Please model this.
Amino acid sequence: LMNGDHVTLGEADAETELDVRFENKSAKKSGTGCVHTAPGHGADDFAIGKRYGLEVYCPVDNGGKFTSEVEHFAGEFIFKANAKIVGFLQESGALLFSENYNHRYPHCWRCKNPVIFRATPQWFISMDDVMSSAENQETGAQKTDVSPLRSGALREIETVNWHPNWGEGRMTNMIKNRPDWCVSRQRSWGVPIPVFYCRACDEAVADSKIVNHVADIFQQETADAWYNREAKDLLPENFKCPKCGGADFTKETDILDVWFDSGSSCVAVLETRGNLQFPADVYLEGGDQFRGWFNSSLMCGLAAHGKSPYKNLITHGWVVDGEGRQMHKSTGNAVSPNDVVNKSGAEVLRLWAAAVDYTEDMRCSDEILSRIVDAYRKFRNTLRYALGNLDRFNPETDSVAQAELLEIDRWALANLNEVVEKVLRAYENYDFQVAYQTLYNFVTVTLSARYFDIIKDRLYIYAPTSFERRSAQTALYEIADKLCRLFAPILVFTSDEAFENLPHQKLQSVHLAEFPAVSEEKNERLLADWERIFSIRDEVLKYLEEARNAKVIGSSLEAKVILTIDADTTFFLLDYFDNLRYVFIVSQVEVHEGEKFAVEIRKADGAKCERCWNYSPRVGESETYPSVCERCVNALSEIEKI
Ligand SMILES: [Zn+2]
Ligand SMILES: [Zn+2]
Ligand SMILES: [Zn+2]
Model:
């Protein structure tokens, strides 16, 4: 056989003529390479048939039965007819051999029945053709310069911000390869396709004037008007068939693909609600919507406005269990959102959603949620600590000017500023995980393990209106205020509750407040210096821990730290010498220059101050306050004056 040969089956069936066409499909597989093609029964065959101009023969009706065209088997359900056809061939002596064998066959995912492929008349939206402007004018369409959907979509895809950015490639491939959009469905109810057929000449009538006329009726009566009204009552008065002048019409019975309904929401919703506008800022859905809503919306947005209906597109993965397996009720590994809300609160569930990487499948289990609960407590306790120490603090009258703040307070605020910058950038990129982690690290490391520990002494010991306490409170107020604002999107209620309780709060809610501004001030030197101090502190804390374990000291305030350190560091620490005892949370510190780094922990000199528990050789000096240290003597005399 040669490509292009025209053959008959010879003696077996002289009436049937066959054309020989070579396709690549069977290449490299076993067999003859001869493939039976039925353009009326399958998409691939239909495409081949179209290419070679074969007849689209489809003698199967809507009920899956052979039509009257089929001699001997008309009216038979096709799968039931199989045995009869074999019998008929046998009887007529045309069958050489027959056997049953197993092979794959597509089945309906829903009812599990074998699928029957049939070529049927449907409505399509073309991906590559567009009406010429002449045709457009003829039908009264407004736009004259329309690009085909496919090329328009490929152009618009580049203007969208894709989160994660692989979405762009995925959508591009999908649009490049998608077939024309089949928008008709054979269902008894739905959004109708507003097309009429002339009874006299069968002409399909669907120009934009008529579609708009029908749309006006739908606006008043809903799309059910299609089912309630006669064709003539849906058409403009005295409408005549443009082809034959006939006046009798039938209605299309197919409905629109539901993806057309959801896809057109970008126009129907965005343009009819006062607080919304086309295009949308964000479309957010699971990865399955590249084929569905993301796709149909892009088509509808392009058709309506020649533009993408979304500026940002966010895709998320699915929730899976702690081991990454799909959740099933039957497996018992499913986590019900309602159970989490009832047990731990919606705040915790929301925080979990912020903490996970939503661009991939997201793990969720009781253990993971309990870690989120821990994080939630840390966040809440941080805000509580700040609020608890801001009692009677008026930010307007009691604040210390930024430049005059104690250096460690400025250090805390410099860190806060970096957090503000990072978190805002993360929110800008819809990267909630980075926002969460940045806030978590700030709260647990910078604040809880360092700053709050160190300023506790100052907040509790110094007189309420003292500069030292006001300096710490100024920083605390700013930290609490900005943290509330930064937490607002992911800790909706907790941040609002804390924000309301900030002293002298004038705003009703954190959700009416702006995000904090990023200060342009560069504090690299300050941050680097304190990083150096904290790395020394980390070492000292290890020795203190050992000394505690060895019962040399009880609490760290019973300790005197003797630090031996190189000349350069000793020189560096000179400026911070008065700070060191508070940074290490001990009563006394000595710094010695030496070759080898060493830390010695001894019992602190002097006696324990009854008030602040620090040790000092000067306890007992005061006659008025004989049981306290010199620092507390000052504080107490100041408090007396109030
Ligand atoms: Zn089915
Ligand atoms: Zn007609
Ligand atoms: Zn004291």
Summary: Residues 184-256 form one domain.
